[in-house]
Amino acid sequence: MLLLHGTAGSLENFCANYAAYAQHFRVIGIDMLGCGWTDKPDFDYQIKDYAEHVRGVMDVLSLNTASVVGVSLGSWVGAALAHAHPDRVNKLVMVAPAGIITDPAEEARVAEGVRKRRLAAATDPSWETVAAAMKGLVLKPETLMDDLIAVRLDIYSDSRMKAAMPRLLAFTLGGQALSEAQWRSLTLPIQVIASVDAPNMFLSNAYAIARTAPTAELVEMHGCDHWPQYEQPDEFNEASIAFLKKA
């Protein structure tokens, strides 16, 4: 199974999940195109580019098929990969899902906020700027481990990241979402995680995908925001593992 992080993130997004998943699956977390310690080529990355990077990783590792667990951008990339290459993705778990438009004005507002925080963190990488960018991911900011902030700070301090950040955020400028017809064409098993205590665009997205994708099943979770896999790991691991193991 492949674990795909969120916007401008990296594979440590799943620090609370690797051990539980590894009891049942071969688990591979990657830093997606331009993110983490992966190379940062000089062009604007769109969703199709992220999806092709994931497919390329699968090819290099001789993975004909895999299940995908994606957070936010990662969920969108997983859906795009499943749409473009339906024979490569077995199942898809979508956490704080993106890639569907429920309110264009809210989508634009959220995207602008993401760009502002991530660009600030990459332009002036300090504990304060990186922490500010990350604490919006959790319902209770005090639960965010210092280790996670430190890893992200180390990545954002890479001399390549300042120039790369606008490129890896290019998809947030719009025009990348899957259409309703594309969502309806996804016939693989999909689990959608809805963080019900965070009434925001991503919660609306979760309900919309659950209504639109024909095989999607919805799991509502409490006590978490954008990172339920981190804030409620036991509940998340149990629910997603049961889904991924189901025949």
Short description:
The protein has helices spanning 18-22, 47-60, 73-84, 104-123, 127-135, 146-156, 161-168, 180-185, 201-212, 228-231, 233-245, and strands at 2-4, 28-30, 66-71, 89-95, 190-195, 216-221.
What does this structure look like?
- This protein is α/β, with parallel strands linked by helices.
- It contains 11 helices and 6 strands.
- Helix 2 (47-60) packs across helix 3, helix 4 (104-123) runs antiparallel to helix 5 and helix 5 crosses helix 6.
- It is globular and about 45 Å long.
- The model has no long low-confidence stretch (mean pLDDT 96).
Q: What's the architecture, going by CATH?
A: 3-Layer(aba) Sandwich
Instruction: Quickly name the level 1 CATH class.
Output: Alpha Beta
Indicate the low-confidence ranges by residue numbers.
Answer: none
Average pLDDT across residues? 96
What is the CATH topology classification name? Rossmann fold
Strand content: 5-15%
The total tally of domains equals 1
Query: Mind describing the biggest β-sheet?
Result: 6 strands, parallel
Number of strands: 6
Name the CATH superfamily classification. Answer: Alpha/Beta hydrolase fold, catalytic domain
Distance between the termini: 15 Å
**Cα Rg:** 16 Å
Query: What is the number of helical segments per DSSP (H or I, 4+ residues)?
Result: 11
Inertia-based shape: globular
Strand order of the largest sheet: 2-1-3-4-5-6
The structural class is: alpha/beta
How much helix, percentage-wise, in residues? 40-55%
Order of secondary-structure elements: EHEHEHEHHHHHEHEHH
